[in-house]
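2024-03-11 09:14:02 INFO queue: dequeued item CDK2-associated and cullin domain-containing protein 1, len=220
2024-03-11 09:14:02 INFO validating residues
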Amino acid sequence: VMNVITIEDYKSTYWPKLDSAIDQLLTQSPGDYIPISYEQIYSCVYKCVCQQHSEQMYSDLIKKITNHLERVSKELQASPPHLYIERFNIALGQYMGALQSIVPLFIYMNKFYIETKLNRDLKDDLIKLFTEHVAEKHIYNLMPLLLEAQSTPFQITPSTMANIVKGLYTLRPEWVQMAPALFSKFIPNVLPPAVESELQEYAAQDQKLQRELIQNGFTR
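2024-03-11 09:14:37 INFO prediction written
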């Protein structure tokens, strides 16, 4: 028989263990070895779900990750333009990497609370947090820099450009409309087939985008 876990037990013993593991996963660099026991964390989540603490645990997890992403966003805001793209790429990669560990650790909570009670999915919820707290706040600074980098050879590596563009498309497919030509280089079939009669319109759209970038302080 499992011992009863009171809300006090959860707050003083169980959540602190989870909190510290999540911290390590969110801040690790790719390829780092983290000294946490996945088995222990997995079992911790399982016990809390069985003892009806899913709602509290979900709320704590969302709050924890939201706070982390708000810090990430502030750090990005303070980045100089020449480091901005690279730092955004690192933040995106680090977070998506962390989710590959965090989501499986909370599989019981996902199955018995998020999917059944909330009709949602933990991974989708956590990706949405990154979209809301980081990507949406930076897209209007990032996009002109990406377009500028694209027209300047060797300014950033092709792999960085590909990671960011694919990442943005995953977060919010409609962002394609901000820079269709850029997205179409990395994502197949995002543009409708070109029609000869519309070529002048494409050229006009391109000129309009160039003018907007110049107005926002970006030289050709």
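2024-03-11 09:14:37 INFO annotate: The CA atoms of residues 213 and 219 lie 7 Å apart.
2024-03-11 09:14:38 INFO item closed
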